[in-house]
């Protein structure tokens, strides 16, 4: 982790040096404080030193290294990195105080200058001391002969031996699950097809990929089918030349023609030799534990396509490697279902009992332990085997469960499990390690929203700059995908566009990562019972339920993130804690019991992220303007109705959420509120998200200057504003989601003059539409995937107006149509997954032709008071999985239970009481 700390500090130094903060400080101060130039020079020198140091230490993972002097030395490097981070943030804080708008008065400004002179000198002195410490660290390394080369080599060999041992950890007769996977693999291997095929088995560490591959490799049917086979353990550290030599020396005996000269051949010559050797063979090659695609092009060439029915199996934790396999030859393993995990655990834990069943008095604790394993076979087998030697007493098992996190990392009989799971973390590049450690701060089993995680990472400074054409959020989105592809994060739910929406970290991986996070002083979780842990020198704190049981007395200036998950924490505790923050970057107080923001919050000049979602906060004071580094301000579900003018001074603001719901079902026109913002909000050119603002003519004329906007929601729009609004939207080439709500249900939203919006994917229009304009305007939205119309007042069937939208996935129509018949024709909406039809009181007939909406997954019919029978065409919707009926006529429900039952018998889930609604900010941000 020293490498990750150094990587993070290098990013911060680069950002500080790239900025022009010092140049904006008055020349009078520069003359008065000569230390400013020394600060810049020192930071450049430290940046150079750390860059070389990072390259040096990146050659080995010290966490599992047996080289104790190296571990101790790296710990010192990490401490210096933390110290430099503190100095840089202090520097940023002081620069901010010099430039903050609240001190433009010359007398006040001079007083502030004088007050900060000592602080500037202190920073210069601290940086000089750091320079000296770095020189001493280099001297120390040379004095004690500390080297990473030997350690890296030894550790790679140890990892490879561990990986090779895994297949033999389970007896064949004790394997549970994977029956279908085994059958499929044997079929792929022996299907008689002559072309060489590449098969992949992928998934997170500990799922049993190697065990499954090994059982297939040893299967008698498979053995008889191939006349030559070899198992090659690749692991993280390998040389392609060694892999090729191992193939040539396998089962060749003393064949001098094959072995002659292979020790001196380069990789190209070896590949050609392997090609010749395999040319006449029906071979099976297993490449186990492959981490990178780097060598594949050469291996692919060496594994000759001889049309003898040869096969290559690759096991891997990374999706990029899995994609090397032929299409329809990729097997992704998942965790065991609870019943199978329980069966496997009992076979291991109670192997000494005749029936291998769990005694009744241990069942509660045994089930909790199995639940903790979350279906991970490696953990189930290891923990079950360990417990088979423990006394079968309830207190013994309770104690083990309570100490499970400690056991995994400290018990010699289990810490190899942690080592196996840690391999994936150790393989992460520096820019991903801090991001993944941050995920461990969320509560157990927590569903992490991708967009939220991205904003937190960005606020913490974990995201690299990758050129002016790419936003930080886009880079961070790439980080999420990479962690998913490396099987570090699991996608629990995808949005309707196929992108990850909800993510989760496996419980055991989280426990191990959290232990590491605490050891590295990256972050801690306060989750009680027991005394508060805020005295620790961790740089991030996550407070879970009952976690902050006493008032923190410690100085918390080292904190960079404070995230609250305890909804019962009293506001006094929050106020006390916040008074100790100084260099905080992330303050998340979602669901906190508070009506006022503590004054201390507005002294946090380094704050990048302020989240007050779902609190009872009513007003935002003018002192908001002091938060000059703020990137995200989330006031969703608060009672804020107006923002102070000072918000326009927050020039780094990227995401602004302000919305309050009155009707979560959104069936009333005034179901959510708008916030009044100052006109100068249009000066914040970095804004990407702006929800939900109250429109006026000036704003609609000038909002086009926000050219970076991707998500915009405007309310109380009058028909007279529409021309200016559409003209402004033309200036936003990256706009992805747009919501427009009329000032009242009778106000006409004039669509004449709407320009094509090529990037738009989500559109919400709430208000009366002109019958003649509506059909033509939708031709301007070629990429639209989510369309929501409400209170449109149309007299003719609107469906034909957007039936050409072949990309549409979501279609919501609320009080849109005042006619009697809606028609879905064959071929319309081929990708539509979710259809919501609500509160159209006159609709009595819904025609659905065979071939319409072939991909429909969910159908909601809400308040269609004239619809008395299930539409006959529902029988054609064979992909439909759920049908929700809310406030439908009693006659409709009666017939559904009797004569119309056959129309819906193919639908797995039909409900007529509950509905699925999502909040506006979840739907309208991407």
From TrEMBL:
<keyword id="KW-0677">Repeat</keyword>
<keyword id="KW-0547">Nucleotide-binding</keyword>
<dbReference type="Pfam" id="PF00931">
    <property type="entry name" value="NB-ARC"/>
</dbReference>
<dbReference type="Pfam" id="PF23598">
    <property type="entry name" value="LRR_14"/>
</dbReference>
<keyword id="KW-0611">Plant defense</keyword>
<feature type="domain" description="Disease resistance R13L4/SHOC-2-like LRR">
    <location>
        <begin position="558"/>
        <end position="882"/>
    </location>
</feature>
<dbReference type="InterPro" id="IPR036388">
    <property type="entry name" value="WH-like_DNA-bd_sf"/>
</dbReference>
<comment type="similarity">
    <text>Belongs to the disease resistance NB-LRR family.</text>
</comment>
<keyword id="KW-0433">Leucine-rich repeat</keyword>
<dbReference type="Pfam" id="PF23559">
    <property type="entry name" value="WHD_DRP"/>
</dbReference>
<dbReference type="InterPro" id="IPR032675">
    <property type="entry name" value="LRR_dom_sf"/>
</dbReference>
<feature type="domain" description="Disease resistance protein winged helix">
    <location>
        <begin position="441"/>
        <end position="512"/>
    </location>
</feature>
<dbReference type="GO" id="GO:0042742">
    <property type="term" value="P:defense response to bacterium"/>
</dbReference>
<dbReference type="GO" id="GO:0002758">
    <property type="term" value="P:innate immune response-activating signaling pathway"/>
</dbReference>
<dbReference type="InterPro" id="IPR044974">
    <property type="entry name" value="Disease_R_plants"/>
</dbReference>
<dbReference type="Pfam" id="PF18052">
    <property type="entry name" value="Rx_N"/>
</dbReference>
<protein>
    <submittedName>
        <fullName>Disease resistance protein RPM1-like</fullName>
    </submittedName>
</protein>
<dbReference type="InterPro" id="IPR027417">
    <property type="entry name" value="P-loop_NTPase"/>
</dbReference>
<feature type="domain" description="Disease resistance N-terminal">
    <location>
        <begin position="20"/>
        <end position="105"/>
    </location>
</feature>
<dbReference type="InterPro" id="IPR058922">
    <property type="entry name" value="WHD_DRP"/>
</dbReference>
<dbReference type="GO" id="GO:0043531">
    <property type="term" value="F:ADP binding"/>
</dbReference>
<dbReference type="InterPro" id="IPR041118">
    <property type="entry name" value="Rx_N"/>
</dbReference>
<feature type="domain" description="NB-ARC">
    <location>
        <begin position="180"/>
        <end position="352"/>
    </location>
</feature>
<dbReference type="InterPro" id="IPR055414">
    <property type="entry name" value="LRR_R13L4/SHOC2-like"/>
</dbReference>
<dbReference type="InterPro" id="IPR042197">
    <property type="entry name" value="Apaf_helical"/>
</dbReference>
<dbReference type="GO" id="GO:0009626">
    <property type="term" value="P:plant-type hypersensitive response"/>
</dbReference>
<dbReference type="InterPro" id="IPR002182">
    <property type="entry name" value="NB-ARC"/>
</dbReference>
């Amino acid at each position: 982790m020293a490498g990750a700390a150094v990587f993070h500090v290098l990013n911060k130094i680069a950002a500080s040096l790239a900025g022009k903060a010092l140049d904006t400080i008055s020349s009078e101060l520069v003359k008065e404080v000569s230390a400013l130039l020394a600060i810049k020079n020192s930071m450049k020198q430290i940046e150079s030193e750390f860059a070389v140091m990072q390259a040096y230490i990146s050659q080995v993972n010290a966490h599992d290294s047996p080289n104790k002097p190296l571990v101790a030395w790296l710990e010192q490097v990490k401490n210096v990195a933390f110290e430099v981070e503190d100095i840089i943030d202090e520097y940023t804080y002081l620069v901010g105080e010099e430039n903050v708008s609240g001190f433009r008065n010359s007398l006040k400004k001079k007083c502030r200058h004088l007050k900060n002179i000592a602080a500037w000198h202190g920073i210069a002195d601290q940086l000089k001391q750091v320079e000296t410490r770095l020189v001493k660290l280099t001297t120390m390394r040379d004095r004690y002969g500390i080297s990473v080369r030997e350690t890296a080599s030894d550790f790679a060999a140890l990892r490879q031996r561990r990986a090779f041992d895994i297949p033999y950890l389970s007896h064949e007769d004790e394997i549970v699950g994977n029956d279908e996977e085994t059958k499929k693999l044997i079929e792929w291997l022996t299907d008689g097809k002559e072309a060489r095929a590449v098969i992949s088995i992928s998934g997170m560490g500990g799922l049993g990929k190697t065990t499954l591959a090994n059982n297939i490799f040893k299967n008698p049917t498979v053995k008889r089918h191939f006349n030559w086979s070899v198992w090659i353990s690749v692991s993280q550290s390998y040389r392609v030349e060694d892999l090729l030599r191992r193939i040539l020396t396998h089962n060749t005996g003393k064949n001098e023609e094959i072995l002659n000269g292979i020790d001196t051949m380069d990789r190209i010559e070896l590949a050609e030799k392997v090609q010749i050797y395999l040319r006449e063979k029906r071979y099976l090659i297993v490449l186990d534990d492959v981490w990178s695609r780097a060598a594949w092009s050469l291996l692919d060439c060496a594994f000759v396509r001889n049309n003898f029915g040869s096969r290559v199996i690759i096991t891997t934790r990374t999706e990029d490697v899995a994609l090397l396999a032929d299409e329809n030859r990729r097997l992704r393993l998942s965790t065991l279902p609870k019943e199978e995990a329980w069966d496997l655990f009992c076979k291991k834990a109670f192997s000494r009992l005749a029936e291998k069943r769990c005694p009744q008095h241990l069942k509660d604790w045994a089930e909790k332990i199995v639940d903790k394993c979350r279906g991970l076979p490696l953990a189930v087998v290891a923990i079950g085997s360990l417990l088979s030697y423990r006394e079968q007493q309830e207190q013994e098992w309770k104690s083990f469960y309570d100490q499970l996190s400690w056991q995994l990392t400290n018990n010699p009989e289990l810490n190899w499990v942690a080592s196996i799971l840690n391999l994936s973390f150790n393989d992460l590049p520096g820019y991903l390690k801090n991001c993944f450690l941050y995920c461990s701060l969320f509560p157990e089993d927590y569903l992490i929203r991708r967009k939220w995680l991205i904003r937190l990472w960005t606020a913490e400074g974990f995201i690299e700059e990758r050129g002016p054409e790419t936003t930080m959020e886009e880079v961070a989105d790439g980080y999420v995908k990479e962690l998913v592809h490396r099987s570090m994060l699991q996608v629990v739910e995808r949005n309707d566009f196929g992108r990850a929406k909800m993510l989760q970290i496996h419980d055991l991986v989280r426990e191990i990562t959290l232990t590491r996070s605490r050891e590295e002083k990256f972050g801690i979780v306060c989750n009680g019972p027991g005394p508060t842990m805020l005295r620790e020198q961790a740089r991030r704190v996550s407070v879970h339920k009952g976690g902050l049981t006493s008032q923190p007395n410690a100085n918390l200036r080292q904190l960079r993130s404070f995230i609250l998950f305890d909804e019962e924490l009293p506001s006094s505790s929050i106020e006390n804690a916040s008074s100790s923050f100084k260099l905080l970057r992330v303050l998340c107080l979602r669901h906190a019991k508070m009506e006022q923001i503590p004054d201390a919050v507005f002294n946090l000049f380094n704050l990048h992220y302020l989240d007050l979602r779902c609190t009872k906060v009513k007003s935002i004071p003018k002192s908001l303007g002091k938060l000059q580094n703020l990137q995200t301000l989330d006031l969703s579900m608060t009672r804020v109705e107006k923002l102070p003018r000072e918000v326009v001074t927050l020039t780094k603001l990227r995401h602004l959420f302000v919305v309050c719901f009155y009707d979560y079902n959104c069936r009333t026109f005034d179901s959510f509120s708008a916030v009044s913002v100052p006109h100068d909000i249009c000066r914040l050119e970095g804004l990407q998200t702006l929800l939900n603002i109250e429109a006026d003519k000036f704003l609609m004329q000038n909002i086009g200057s926000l050219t970076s906007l991707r998500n915009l929601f405007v309310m109380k729009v009058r028909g007279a504003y529409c021309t200016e609004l559409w003209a402004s939207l033309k200036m936003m080439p990256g706009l992805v989601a747009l919501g427009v709500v009329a000032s009242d249900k009778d106000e006409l939203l004039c669509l004449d003059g709407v320009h094509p919006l090529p990037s738009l994917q989500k559109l919400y229009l709430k208000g009366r539409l002109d019958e003649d304009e509506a059909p033509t305007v939708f031709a301007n939205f070629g990429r639209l995937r989510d369309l929501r119309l409400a209170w449109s007042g149309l007299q003719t069937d609107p469906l034909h107006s957007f039936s050409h939208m072949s990309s549409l996935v979501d279609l919501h129509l609320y009080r849109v149509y005042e006619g009697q018949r809606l028609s879905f024709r064959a071929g319309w909406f081929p990708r539509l997954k979710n259809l919501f039809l609500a509160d159209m009181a006159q609709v009595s007939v819904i025609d659905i032709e065979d071939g319409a909406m072939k991909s429909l997954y969910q159908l909601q019919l809400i308040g269609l008071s004239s619809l008395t029978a299930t539409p006959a065409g529902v029988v054609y919707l064979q992909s439909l999985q759920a049908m929700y009926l809310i406030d439908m006529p009693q006659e409709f429900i009666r017939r559904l239970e009797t004569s119309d039952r056959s129309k819906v018998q193919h639908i797995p889930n039909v409900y007529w009481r509950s509905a699925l609604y999502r909040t506006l900010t979840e739907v309208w941000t991407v």
